[in-house]
Design a protein that fits this description.
Helices cover 38% and strands 16% of the residues. It is α+β, with helices and mostly antiparallel strands. A two-stranded antiparallel ribbon has the order 1-2. α2 runs antiparallel to α3.
Length: 154
């Protein structure tokens, strides 16, 4: 059985740090991290309501920006121990332009060349997109991972 992706329940870390010394050793402030995670959660919860790619890209940008904060950076290594990333290719349709500007393909595509849009329709095309999914590790997986044993340094 595969775990649910971490989209609706962005990372809950109350058990990540076992004691105050753990926080000091990692220079990670759990309260600051919780605030960053709450902000990320707020942004991610808006994703299903996005009606445009621009809106979605704006949310992704906001979440990415939060990963640049000191609070996240100081806690990043500890946080990353508790999830796996998987990349998958999906087939989707859109009408964006993926050709280099002024190339033969760009000139011939009404989705790229706005002048062609007066006489031709910009039709959606099937394209392959790589998506990254975040999966929380299952408790058994964490317990059996030698890198995650208490006191291990990496």
């Amino acid at each position: 059985k595969q775990a649910e992706p971490v989209v609706t329940t962005v990372l809950n870390f109350k058990d990540v740090f076992k004691n105050e010394q753990d926080q000091i050793d990692n220079l990670c402030d759990v309260n600051e991290l919780r605030q960053v995670i709450a902000q990320m959660t707020d942004f991610i919860e808006q994703m299903p309501n996005c009606s445009t790619n621009d809106g979605l890209y704006n949310i992704i940008f906001q979440v990415d920006t939060l990963t640049l904060t000191d609070s996240w950076s100081r806690c990043r290594k500890r946080v990353e121990q508790f999830y796996n990333l998987t990349q998958n290719i999906i087939v989707t349709e859109d009408n964006n332009c993926y050709f280099e500007e002024e190339s033969k393909e760009w000139l011939a595509d009404p989705c790229c060349n706005i002048e062609l849009g007066w006489e031709q329709c910009c039709e959606s095309k099937k394209i392959n997109k790589t998506i990254t999914q975040i999966w929380l590790k299952e408790a058994a997986e964490i317990i059996n991972d030698p890198k995650l044993v208490c006191g291990s340094q990496e």
